[in-house]
Automatic annotation (TrEMBL):
InterPro entries: Ester_Hydrolysis_Enzymes (IPR051532), SGNH_hydro (IPR013830), SGNH_hydro_sf (IPR036514)
GO MF, one example: phosphatidylcholine lysophospholipase activity
Coiled-coil intervals: none
Pfam families in the cross-refs: Lipase_GDSL_2
Name the UniProt record assigns to this protein: SGNH hydrolase-type esterase domain-containing protein
Annotated ranges, domain SGNH hydrolase-type esterase: 58-181
Amino acid sequence: MKKVLLLGDSIRMGYDEYVRDILKDKCKVYYDDTDNGRFAAYTLWQANQLFRKYGKFDVVHWNNGYWDMNIEPPMAEAVHPIDEYIHFLKRIIGEIRRNDAAIIFATTTPVLHSGSSPDNTGTGVNIKYSNDWVVQYNEAAKRLAAEENITVNDLYALMLQDKNYYKCEDSLHLTEEGYKLCAEQAAKLILEKL
């Protein structure tokens, strides 16, 4: 059976089980169900652990963004300013290609207003966010994806279909309906790659 790996932050953790359920008869879907992929450098490390544990994959679907753009006090700038973000996305792309997997990169979902919210996966981190940051990071990632001929799963555009962007009460994470829509779109793109 074909193998698919899902990588990413708490947004991925919100849709991964739905993707697994949608694809259960078509492929085996893997992800770390105990750990948030956080920022791109952490996702790079996490991907390496999962490649070591499970071997080759046919498709890797992944997202990063909120943690990278987060300005966590007392830091004065983002965890990964855009140039560093792109550097680590390139590293992740390189490792996925060494694994011989097809790649799908998912954009960061929009936020309605600037603010902050605790990460909902138990890390204890407060994520600061602004839609201006989301747009800038997404644009940089989409340019890289175009240069690298990588399929983009535009979750940003998908969430714009709802006036509240399918946001739950914390204004960062998604409602169950939003996660289900993300899963459906991710599963569709994964099936196209398989």
